[in-house]
Amino acid sequence: MTLVLRFGDVRLYDHDLETVAPGEWVGDVIIEFYYEYLERAAFPQLAKQVQFVQPAVACLLSNAPDAGMLAGALPPDLGSKQAVFLPVNDSTGLEPGGSHWSLLCFYKPTHTCYYYDSLGSSNLPHAQRTARALDAVLGHDSPSAFVQIDTPVQVNGFDCGVYVMVITHILCSRFASRGFDVADKPGDLSGWRLLHNVPHDLVARRRTEIRELILKMSQAQKAEAQRFADQRAGGVPRV
What we know:
Blueprint (H helix, E strand, L loop, with lengths): L2 E5 L2 E4 H5 L9 H15 L7 E3 L2 H9 L19 E7 L11 E7 L4 E5 L7 H15 L6 E5 L10 H19 L21 H34 L6
Parallel strand pairs: 3-4, 6-7
Antiparallel strand pairs: 1-2, 4-5, 5-6
Helix pairs in contact: 2-5, 3-4
């Protein structure tokens, strides 16, 4: 097992990188990396308003039998966020495993959870359970509304995780460009629809882009480590 990249709180190994290769089912560490990338690099201006919940925490939120198990797992300021993204897995255990990813986005201004699933309603029971658990954690007086958004259907059995990352990126882009009044009425879905925004070729291209991004960051990190080692040894930095 070889470490490929350290980024924020993420440790990404060679077997994780293999899951973003063409034709592979994307593992939870890849989604964890991409959410960290969105928060730290792609949309740092949204950090105070958006929470990207890591896959393992979302799975724990959905399946933990005792809310006390969540203590310390969720950020203390979660209730102040305007939007919370949760990758939903169909695992019934306390760690992601399963066979399908979908996306849940809780939007505070409309007190609504928006659900995206590239296999129709495949993860609907898991997403609804996650939404109810989030209501409990946030101490909502009334349940949040739950709206399923029409989502482009994947054409294979392995791209669900890429759809989650692509859709999260699209919604963040809308927040960044239009602000959080993108859809301030519970019945207005115009800011949430994306049926024509996720063509199949975009999904395939994004998979490649994420893999290339990881490798580029890994190379830069290794070069920086080598420069540091050379400086400590008093040698000439390698180019």
